[in-house]
UniProtKB/TrEMBL annotation:
Protein name listed in UniProt: Alpha-L-fucosidase
Keyword annotations from UniProtKB, A to Z: Signal
PANTHER family: SGNH HYDROLASE-TYPE ESTERASE DOMAIN-CONTAINING PROTEIN, THIOESTERASE 1/PROTEASE 1/LYSOPHOSPHOLIPASE L1
Any GO MF annotation of the entry: phosphatidylcholine lysophospholipase activity
């Protein structure tokens, strides 16, 4: 009799424990992500990415990953992006490691055919302290390798000419941009990536941007962007033919 009673008590105790566990699991709400220190601004395009449908069967989606040059481009000429189904993921002020952090969310997950990577100027400008050209290249290489791993064709941009930064005139930008572009070109050729040259059509005799094509020596005006559109479209066509 005592054994039967003990068995019943154990059984009922187990049932109560199971009910308590179930109640606890129901009362536990999923923890919200905390973006109070969103250094790479992952939240900026989060909603747009969620609303963006997967590419159509024959769509050749192109994602532009960069900083203010790309962000302001869509503001100045939105029709260019909508007409071509280009996806702009530029964020003003960002340096190359921030682009790398965003690469999965703002590029890979969008399943593009091509990514256009424009990086390095804000690093040179010292927006978050000194970043060497080699470190910039490390970040560009990491992005390109991630893209290739996910069968995304890579276009790497030679940066626009900059003589000096209005917000940091002590930085002598012109030669640093030239040196960075040389490294980009060498790497892209070695890896058979498509090179998109924004430097040559915009440069003046001081290795800065031509005055009639820029608003501040760093960012193009609409006329400058129109020139960039021509070379961009040519690079996209070339990249689509590239096996890599």
């Amino acid at each position: 009799m005592n054994k039967i009673l003990l068995f019943i008590l154990l059984l009922s105790g187990g049932a109560v424990f199971a009910q308590d566990q179930k109640a606890d699991s129901l009362n536990t709400k999923p923890e919200k992500e905390n973006f109070s220190d969103d250094w790479a601004a992952l939240t900026k395009y989060q909603k747009e990415n969620e609303l963006l449908p997967p590419p159509a069967k024959k769509e050749k989606r192109v994602v532009f990953l960069g900083s203010s040059i790309f962000e302001f481009w869509k503001q100045k000429d939105p029709e260019y992006f909508s007409r071509n189904n280009y996806v702009d993921r530029g964020i003003s002020g960002q340096i190359s490691p921030q682009l790398l952090i965003r690469f999965r969310q703002d590029v890979i997950n969008l399943k593009p055919k091509i990514v256009i990577i424009l990086a390095g100027s804000n690093d040179i400008a010292g927006n978050t302290g000194h970043v060497s050209l080699d470190k910039i290249m490390d970040n560009i290489k990491s992005m390109a390798e991630l893209a290739r791993l996910h069968r995304i064709k890579v276009i790497i941009c030679k940066y626009l000419p900059v003589y000096e930064y209005p917000w940091n005139k002590r930085i002598k930008a012109a030669d640093s941009i030239v040196n960075l572009n040389e490294k980009i070109e060498t790497y892209a050729k070695a890896q058979n990536y498509t090179i998109l040259d924004y430097w040559t059509p915009l440069v003046d005799e001081k290795k800065g941007q031509r005055a009639e094509l820029t608003v501040d020596g760093v960012h193009p005006n609409l006329a400058g962007y129109k020139i960039m559109e021509e070379v961009t479209d040519a690079a996209v066509k070339k990249a689509l033919k590239n096996r890599h």
